[in-house]
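USER: If only I could read backbone structure tokens as easily as an amino acid sequence. It would mean a lot if you studied the pair and described how this chain folds. Here is the record:
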Amino acid sequence: MSHIAKKHSLNRRAFLKGTGATVALPFLSAMTPAFAAGPVAPKRFVAMNGGLGFHAPNFIPTETGANYKTPLYLQKLEKHRKDFTVFSGLSHPNSNGNSGHASELTWLTSTPRPGLAGFKNTISLDQLMAKHIGAATRFPSLTVGARGQSLSWTANGVQIPAQMHPAKIFRSLFVNGTEKEVAEEIKNLERGRSILDTVLDDAKTLNLTLGARDREKLDEYFTSVRELEIRLQQNKQWANRPKPKVNYKEPQDVADRNDILAKQRLMYDLILLALQTDSTRVIAFSIGGMNAVPSNIPGVRTDWHMLSHHGRDEDKIGELARIEAAEFEVFGEFLTKLKKVKEAGGHLLDHTAILFGSNLGNASSHSWRNLPILLAGGGYKHGHHVAHDPDNNTPFANLFVPLVQRMGVETDKFGSSTASTIRGLEG
């Protein structure tokens, strides 16, 4: 294949054809435009949130800069130390909500007062990215979860359900339907387009009879319908294209619902495959937690949620640390696998920005301040702990702005952000 790369570039949607089969190619260096200076890989983004928090003393270093002493959880990532940056002193302003865990609703949106009277969520970071670059892939984004609730929200503040079943996720990504199923899918897509056309015509007629505020609301509706029309057309095109083939046995859902580590590992594998095959470039993953005792973690005998409310009890903190350290170990395995996938003069982690952390800075007191945040990969300069003011937190959304800019979105504002950059993020 080297002669191909030297003489011309391959179309990103190139296919291998033969013996009656057609197989979509993953991203290859040969797909780089011939005039480019070198191989260019697509930029990707993955957000991962642990809804029950992470015990901060085991996550956040005491020292700042590059020479920090590694706390317990980061010891599980030690070989990747130069591949991530730890941020402290960040939070979303006014994240107190109708329950202790309501801040999870707005971890990727920064909308204030989650769940309280008058609350309406806004678009999440991942969905803004997907809106901009999603047409390039079969799936504009993936919203998945091991446990917990979805992190993704539309521009109209509607929560996008998270896919929790690995087997279903795998089939949607990599298993082609029969000719009959594909034909039925296209038929349904065409039917959806027809319905939208009718609804839009009716709405335009109604617009003539409405006041200014209602016309504004209806214009928002028109925008949503137009976006959906575009997506339906894109889906129709993708329906006729084969899904990528992967060297991975179709998974079964984890039988033991309390084996959270097995579930996380399986989800990480699927995320890796989705990115590697360029099936999507934007993923939101709810790592979750549960009101039960996790299986297969030695020394843990207590309900996980109860442990998160440890009240500084050292025995409870010890059990909690076993769970969370194991989560970091599994996350470290995922980073290792990303670095093993070579592309465009680097590896998959180089081209994937991973935002990892929690909506709770102190789960025991349901505090949404001083969030534990880690940013890995993405081509940034890493290896530091960047400490912002623990008393006067920097808006977490200040980090969102450069992340969304990196994906090609032209904006200097996101949600509650007060600046278009953040101290400690170096490109």
